[in-house]
Amino acid sequence: MSELRYIAIEGVIGAGKSSLAQLLADKLKASLILEEFEENPFLQKFYDDRKRYAFQTQMFFLINRYKQQQQLKQQDLFASITVSDYIFDKDKIFAYLNLSKEELKLYEAIFPLLERDIPKPDLVIFLQASIDRLIFNIKKRGRSFEKNLTRQYLVELSEAYNNFFFKYSNTPLLIVNTSDIDFVNNENDFNELYSHIFREDRGFIEYFNPKLRG
């Protein structure tokens, strides 16, 4: 466990990133960093009209994530454990999915300048889930600004995430299939996942596919 001082959790909207981050932070008595999506004034408009508001939404998230990561950089990651519900690199997933060619040119000129000195996690946990499970989770939490999220957008986003992490090699990676488990409400599911995260023999890239208990 001692080598994991900075853990970041990723996944499509509704996969359970923030919930798992909170659970891990509580158990580890760790510092918690949550993405400040509610502060983005363009997000609701983006879900209503992706094409029109993609660039404003993207740039707000990029700058906000950068500021948050700079605060993380100033912390002593060796003195305490930190858990985050996103990685800075994920910004590119949304950019390439949503921005026009002209907008991407500007984005690609800015992103590398910000990326250079961002701290890297000791482990990234990528939560995969079926589209039906994502929709169920999104409806269950009932955020007003997510009411216009379409199934098609979730399909596109899920494919983009899968492609991104298929090629990902920046840090150790644990890919978890969450479609048939409930680590939020089922303590056994959480404990099984927790044990796998801190396995001493965990490989650099590893898949965890727990099955639904009867």
UniProtKB/TrEMBL annotation:
The keyword Transferase applies. InterPro entries: DCK/DGK, Deoxyribonucleoside_kinase, DNK_dom, P-loop_NTPase. Residues 7-197 form the Deoxynucleoside kinase domain. GO terms for cellular component: cytoplasm. One of its GO terms (molecular function) is ATP binding. ATP binds at G11, V12, I13, G14, A15, G16, K17, S18, S19. Pfam families: dNK. CDD domains: dNK. The active site is at D85. Keywords: ATP-binding, Kinase, Nucleotide-binding, Transferase. It comes from the Bacteria. PANTHER family: DEOXYGUANOSINE KINASE, DEOXYNUCLEOSIDE KINASE. This is Deoxynucleoside kinase.
